[in-house]
Amino acid sequence: MQIAVGSGKGGTGKTTISTSLALSAGTDVQYLDCDVEEPNGHIFLKPKLTHRETVVVTVPRLDESRCTACGKCRDICAFNAIAQFGKTVMIFPEMCHSCLGCFRVCEEDALIEDTREIGILESGMAGDIHFVHGRVRIGEAMGVPLLKAVKHKAEQDRLTIIDAPPGTSCPFVESVNDADYVILVTEPTPFGLHDLKLAATVLKNFKIPSGVIINRSDLGDDRVQRYCDSENIPVLLEIPFQRAIAEGYARGINLVDTVPELRTVFSDLLTRIAFEVAQ
Amino acid sequence: MEQTIKEVLILSGKGGTGKTSIVGSFAHLAENKILVDCDVDASDLHLLLAPKPTETHDFKSGVKARVEADKCSGCGMCAELCQFESITMGETAVISPLNCEGCGVCAHFCPEEAIVLQENHCGSWYIADTAYGPLVHAQLFAGEENSGKLVSHIKNQARQLAETTNTGLILIDGAPGVGCPVIASLSNVDLAVVITEPTLSGKHDLDRILDLTEHFKIPALVCINKWDLHSEMSDSIEKSCNDRGANVLGKIPFDRQVITCQIQGVPVTADDTSLAGYSIKAIWKKLKEHL
């Protein structure tokens, strides 16, 4: 079973919830940090990272001795990664989406498969938790292939918790599209509600079952609750603001270590979700 | 003489650090400026500024592939060629628009010419009036990509507007993260202001965003929000910022009044009872000295 934890926007407690779920699940759980731009799960789970690999994408490199400047590679490239000035062909690997179209149209074998590093993937154990995360290279605009590499590490028969990136655009969608259930973490504020609506709309379009956790539930109003009621989205849990939780978070201490009673609450929540997914 | 236009970008590494509340306050405090919200994915600034659109435009970018089922012979070549796992084969090919990157390889090689590429309408952008000046903002449709292009587009629109109205300051609310939309929002910027929180993850995200501003050689200043939730961490962030040449402009205390203001839809600096509001006023004063 795959459970993704999303939020519409960062800062609502997504990592707090996803790491707490992983810590409360018992054995044989996997935690995938799909927020490859700003991975933070390792700060709370403190895994021993024993495996590290560079993630690359395939990009073309020109063999000038073979190129006849026919222009076919430039014509097929939808991303302006290949330009041609007269007889000079130039390749901009950072704009390449690795569709491989240029290789296929080149009749002179003038393109060589080269690679471009987009980031690193690290994995290891955090206690009983199988931990995986990716870190995109700074200045790299294409995080999705790295996110996919993190997701490919998911073991099918293992309970998997996915910490999704913020927002509702392609990285979020890529993180949740195979999930059996998505937990949306929000705050009872106008910003929280607005972003929750966007994320909930995406999930509704995908027909992925979802529920909401309201974090810092006493620091706002009841509009999130009313929205969830009107949309038939279950509110799974409400966590009131506590300075101790905020201070623990600041120090990298996980929620279930700051408030140990919550461990049972989260493990019950996993049971409830498993039941709902099985229906 | 033509006025030089200064672009100030407010970033956070990650959402939820209070960036929009702070940008909303800067919008309240700054005189004669144009506002831009580059968080095209999940923007919130409009909740504070209550913009009234004066112009609404479609944003189209790239293409998406679509199968004309009556022409498709089901040969499966497109599915084999697609590098983005966006084509599945039934009796005919089926393309998932969410995964399609619009590379056009499938259409190029389809022996039956059964795939057409359609321009992709992926969002809207607006020029709006607010109580604090014009706002250029946008909304990308959920699940869409090309947010970097939309960010570049609205930034260009803001610049044109600044030139025609002879406005010297563009105040930009950035997107979260360090990826495509943030990179796009950094172009042409004179100064970046990074909002962070005194937490281990805040420190981690701040380091990554400062790596990014250094990478693009953009001077950066830092504000620590909710500093009193962990004052030692706040000190440690301040020290590490100073060590790497990104000075801390100021610190803002945790203040429940910020949320009350959010609910009322007013900038926190407009509230005379808010401690956070006073700190933001002091920060703005210092920020102006850097412009």
UniProtKB/TrEMBL annotation, chain A:
<dbReference type="InterPro" id="IPR002586">
    <property type="entry name" value="CobQ/CobB/MinD/ParA_Nub-bd_dom"/>
</dbReference>
<dbReference type="Pfam" id="PF00037">
    <property type="entry name" value="Fer4"/>
</dbReference>
<dbReference type="Pfam" id="PF01656">
    <property type="entry name" value="CbiA"/>
</dbReference>
<feature type="domain" description="4Fe-4S ferredoxin-type">
    <location>
        <begin position="58"/>
        <end position="88"/>
    </location>
</feature>
<protein>
    <submittedName>
        <fullName>p-loop ATPase, MinD superfamily</fullName>
    </submittedName>
</protein>
<dbReference type="InterPro" id="IPR027417">
    <property type="entry name" value="P-loop_NTPase"/>
</dbReference>
<dbReference type="InterPro" id="IPR017896">
    <property type="entry name" value="4Fe4S_Fe-S-bd"/>
</dbReference>
TrEMBL record, chain B:
<keyword id="KW-0479">Metal-binding</keyword>
<dbReference type="InterPro" id="IPR017896">
    <property type="entry name" value="4Fe4S_Fe-S-bd"/>
</dbReference>
<dbReference type="Pfam" id="PF00037">
    <property type="entry name" value="Fer4"/>
</dbReference>
<dbReference type="InterPro" id="IPR002586">
    <property type="entry name" value="CobQ/CobB/MinD/ParA_Nub-bd_dom"/>
</dbReference>
<dbReference type="Pfam" id="PF01656">
    <property type="entry name" value="CbiA"/>
</dbReference>
<dbReference type="InterPro" id="IPR027417">
    <property type="entry name" value="P-loop_NTPase"/>
</dbReference>
<keyword id="KW-0408">Iron</keyword>
<dbReference type="GO" id="GO:0046872">
    <property type="term" value="F:metal ion binding"/>
</dbReference>
<feature type="domain" description="4Fe-4S ferredoxin-type">
    <location>
        <begin position="63"/>
        <end position="92"/>
    </location>
</feature>
<dbReference type="GO" id="GO:0051536">
    <property type="term" value="F:iron-sulfur cluster binding"/>
</dbReference>
<feature type="domain" description="4Fe-4S ferredoxin-type">
    <location>
        <begin position="93"/>
        <end position="120"/>
    </location>
</feature>
<dbReference type="InterPro" id="IPR017900">
    <property type="entry name" value="4Fe4S_Fe_S_CS"/>
</dbReference>
<protein>
    <submittedName>
        <fullName>p-loop ATPase, MinD superfamily</fullName>
    </submittedName>
</protein>
<keyword id="KW-0411">Iron-sulfur</keyword>
